[in-house]
Design brief:
The structure is a single chain. An eight-stranded parallel β-barrel has the order 1-2-3-4-5-6-7-8, surrounded by five helices. The chain contains nine helices and eight strands. 44% of the residues are buried. It has a single domain (2-196, 222-228), classed as TIM Barrel. Helix 3 (53-67) links the parallel strand 2 and strand 3 (71-75). By secondary structure, it is of the alpha/beta class. The mean pLDDT is 97.
C-alpha cells in the first residue's frame, strides 16, 4: 500500500512558520522522518493565503528531495503552483489533486501528461460531493474518460471517493467503503484508489482511533493509497496487520518490524 505523508503542509502552524522563514532544516527533518516511518510519498503544500506560493513550493520541493529519496506529491488548488512544483521535481511526481470539474481536468490532465505524473482525482464536480455510490461512480467514469482523451493512462490515476467527517456526515462513510470496491470494476486494469484519511476524524474526539479503524476497513475494500500521519506508530502497525491478514504481505513473527 502506498502511504503518503501529510505533515509537510503549511496549514500546520509550525510548518507554515518554517516556510515563512525558509527553515530548510525543519522541513528536511520532517520529510526525512516521514520517509523513515514508512511514507513512500511526501505530500507538499504551502498552505492557504500565501502570496509567494509558487516560489514557496519550488523551495519546498528542493528541500524535500534533498532530504529523502521518497516521491513527492505536489498539493495545491492553484495550477500555477502545481506547475512550479513539478518543474523542480526530479523523480516521478504525484499531483494532488483534480476534481471532476471540466475546467480543472482540462488544465491538470495535460500537466500530468507533460510531467509524466500520477494524479489524485476527487469525485467532486460543480455540484459538490455526491451523496450516493452511483453518483460517485458516474463522476469516476467521467474522470477516466476525460483522462483517456487527454492521453493520461488509467494506471496514472488515483480515484478518491472523498471522505466526509463522521461528526457531520456519518451515513457517508459506508458509501466510501462501497465506492472503493465499485471503482475496481470500472476498467481493466482497475483504477487505483486513494483517500485523505484524516478527514474522517475532523471535529471528532478520539481522532487517532477513528483514523486507524477506518483505514483498516478501507484496506479491506482494496484501497491502494492513503494520505496519512505516518508518524502515528499505531496507525502504521494497523496497516501492517491488515495487509498480513488480507494475505497481501507474508506473515512473519516480526511483521511489525518490516
Amino acid at each position: 500500500m502506498m502511504l503518503i505523508g501529510e505533515k509537510c503542509n503549511g496549514m500546520f502552524s509550525a510548518v507554515g512558520k518554517a516556510i515563512d522563514n525558509r527553515d530548510a532544516d525543519f522541513i528536511a527533518k520532517l520529510a526525512s522522518d516521514q520517509a523513515k516511518a514508512g511514507a513512500s510519498v511526501i505530500d507538499l503544500s504551502t498552505g492557504p493565503g500565501r502570496d509567494d506560493a509558487a516560489d514557496a513550493m519550488r523551495w519546498l520541493v528542493k528541500v524535500a528531495q534533498g532530504a529523502t529519496d521518497a516521491r513527492l506529491s505536489i498539493d495545491s488548488p492553484s495550477v500555477d503552483v502545481i506547475r512550479a512544483g513539478l518543474e523542480e521535481c526530479k523523480g516521478h511526481p504525484l499531483i494532488n489533486s483534480t476534481t471532476a470539474e471540466i475546467e480543472k481536468m482540462s488544465k491538470l490532465f495535460p500537466l500530468a501528461k507533460d510531467f509524466n505524473a500520477e494524479i489524485v482525482c476527487l469525485t467532486i464536480d460543480e455540484k459538490g460531493i455526491p451523496n450516493t455510490v452511483d453518483q460517485r461512480m458516474e463522476l469516476a467514469m467521467t474522470i477516466l474518460a476525460t483522462a483517456m482523451d487527454a492521453g493520461v493512462p488509467t494506471e496514472s490515476l488515483y480515484l478518491d471517493p472523498v471522505i466526509l467527517p463522521v461528526s457531520a456526515a456519518q451515513n457517508q462513510l459506508p458509501m466510501v467503503c462501497e465506492s472503493i470496491s465499485a471503482f475496481k470494476n470500472l476498467s481493466s486494469p482497475a483504477p487505483k484508489t486513494v483517500v485523505g484519511l484524516s478527514n474522517v476524524s475532523n471535529g471528532a474526539q478520539e481522532k487517532k482511533l477513528l483514523n486507524r479503524v477506518y483505514l483498516a476497513m478501507l484496506v479491506g475494500r482494496g484501497l491502494d493509497a492513503a494520505i496519512v500521519d505516518v508518524l502515528d506508530v499505531d496507525l502504521m502497525n494497523t496497516v501492517k496487520a491488515a495487509e498480513v491478514l488480507l494475505n497481501k504481505k507474508l506473515y512473519a513473527h516480526s511483521f511489525l518490524k518490516v
